[in-house]
Amino acid sequence: MSVQTHTLSNGLRVVTEHMPGLESAALGIWVLAGGRHEQVEQNGIAHFLEHMAFKGTETRSALQIAEAIEDVGGFINAYTSREVTAYYTRVLREDTSLALDVIADILMNPVFDQREIEVERGVILQEIGQAADTPDDIIFDWLQEEAYPDQPIGRTILGPTERVSNFTREDLLRFVAEHYGPEQMILSAAGAVDHDQLVKEAEEKFGSLAKRTIIQAAPSSFRGGQKIIQKDLEQVHFTMGFDSPNYRDPDIYTAQIYGTAMGGGMSSRLFQEIREKRGMCYTIFAQAGAYSDTGMTMLYAGTSAEQIEELALVCMDEMKRAAEDMSEPEVKRARAQMKAGLLMGLESPSSRAERHARMMQIWGRIPDLSETIERVDAVGTDDVRRFAETLVTDAKSALALYGPISKAPDLATLQKRLAA
Question: What pTM value is reported for the model?
């Protein structure tokens, strides 16, 4: 793996991987500031700021930003998560300097024009409304809130309408001043890229950015709780989360293999038992997610009001059974799915750039792929059973239910079923 790294004098990190045979490159800036870095009165501002990045700089209008990249056949986008805000592009080899110039421009020279702020405020309010009207979207925000009540990591990334409706230009500038320092930025690129040239251009574009005090995110603590919302929908949406390892914990690989074996595909336990054998749902899955200091293993399903009680209880029974008889073939299959997903995904330069930024965020270095594969392969059946037992007996849990709920088990009932 031809990965190279460099740190500018002000602390901004550069990581590149040249991928022979490609004529395109993916590159972007990953800012280590997301929803969990907001104060309560700022909830939603990291996402608002992401939107505003494309609304004009001192040298380019919003249209000119889009045209600069699309005129050469590339694309530009951004996203906000709870721990990161990313601004990224993909272009042909000869346009990487242009792409970096545009990314640097939107980060270093935003104007935050008041007229554009009001336009984008309307767009974000529509996005919030759309999420609220999408049950299998909003329910995950509710689960997060119940798992981490009264904590930044538990708040919605989009923010509440009342906050977003009142953000000012000064609020945006304050968040940038607090969190967009060079030591909180990772420039990551993969594909048809030249490391030395990119470092030189990064120095030109970002070298003048002054260091600043890093404001750490508030620590998180999985506490658990429940939210049950009655509404006249076609289905009841059910999701449950369990306290799990953070992404630096060696057990994260065990948690991810468990999630895959339980609900990661058509051969998984939940899919086979609840959809294939019982026909109780169309969608059901499980997965393990992680943050810097916490994690959550969760399961989701949508079903009818008449079947939600049975479905939820069967899910608990399957979790208990996994602690007793999770088999070697199931674990082997889950390991294979994880490795294949990782390796297939990394055939894309965009995925490679994303992975390298994430690895720099987590470890401060880029582990070789073989190291990750070894960690996955090291997880055995006994490890997965042990983790499954922990979820059944020790882990805190959270529940979110949404829909035409006539008779559905609450969190205490489900916890009792697990412990029985």
Answer: 0.95
